[in-house]
Write a structure and sequence with these properties.
The protein is α/β, with parallel strands linked by helices. 38% of the residues lie in helices and 18% in strands.
Length: 399
Amino acid sequence: MRRFYCATAEEIKDGRTTDIYFVRTREVLEAKGRERVRVAAEVTAGAIPDGHPWGVLCGVEEVAHLFEGVPVDLYSMREGSIFRPSDHRGVREPVLMVEGAYSDFCLMETPMLGLLCQESGVATRAARVRLAAGDRLTVSFGIRRMHPALAPAIDRAAYIGGMDGVSSLIGAEVIGEKPMGTMPHALIIVFGEQTSAWRAFDEVMEPDVPRIALVDTYFDEKTEAIMAAEALGERLRGVRLDTPGSRKGSFAEIVREVRWELDIRGHSHVKIFVSGGLDDEAVRILGEAGAEAFGVGTWVSSAPTVDFALDIVEVEGRPAAKRGKLGGKKQVYRCPTCLVDLVRPWESEAPKCPSCGGATEPMLRPLVKGGEIVAELPEPKRIRGYVLEQLKKLSGRGA
């Protein structure tokens, strides 16, 4: 009997999380002597959620482990790569390619897509929050809206996409950072009033824990912010506004009011941290109003999945594809300066960038060879750095 309804690593590797029609397909191939037919199959995205022009590829490391020990070859974009559904000519852009006997890997298709689709969706929205926030602090607060078994994957994807930190213990462990958070309304309610709770927090927490007071439990945000600043003085790092939608009015105006009242009383060192139902547009607006840190939850953690699909494009070395897809293996060439992509036949020479005329680089590189992982699997911090480098280039182009 399962106590929690989540698959184990062994069940995923054994194909227990696949769709039944792949099991039946393998049975038919084996019965008819076609189990050793070799194919090449590509993973492409039909569209990015919200009509966004680009996404952030995430989940590649887990895909590598999924195919470890499976006698196939995988080529993939680096984890953290910005990708688009199609290149500048409208040709679908593969983010990953599998080569091998179809019967050897067909049971892996469902879990592979699940890893890429969900985690890329989370990373993509996190990247949009990063762009909206600029250099301001962003923290992933959304694991409470998702199945707890997914907390490590969601927080890792959010961090890779550009969030500065995560709130969960296990997510922080995965990314190699300390968890970030403030205090809940429950602490204040148990104490019965705000000042006692803030002072107790200050007295008990280690010095390296930022003193950020939640200031919207009983009175309005301005009043409680002033109370917190007077209670903790220079030790107060910030105030958090978690005002629910039913009470917000204009959240930006509340932020401006709190900022003004703190400043004129000599508390300009106190930062304003906002949370509660934020998306990338809210982050942009509240940042302009004076907010300096953002806790973004559900909008990132429950991001719509990227619509990836795996399609055979070659059988025994010959182009083959269903209608609506282009046959033959393909390589994606990218200009590292402009981030312009060009999709070409697999063994074609690297073209020049149509925008700047510079050299392009192949994006699909060996990940797994004959079931052995051959690519470096970098730490989340390095992957995040790669994402941020790309986002700077996109931001310079008005993305």
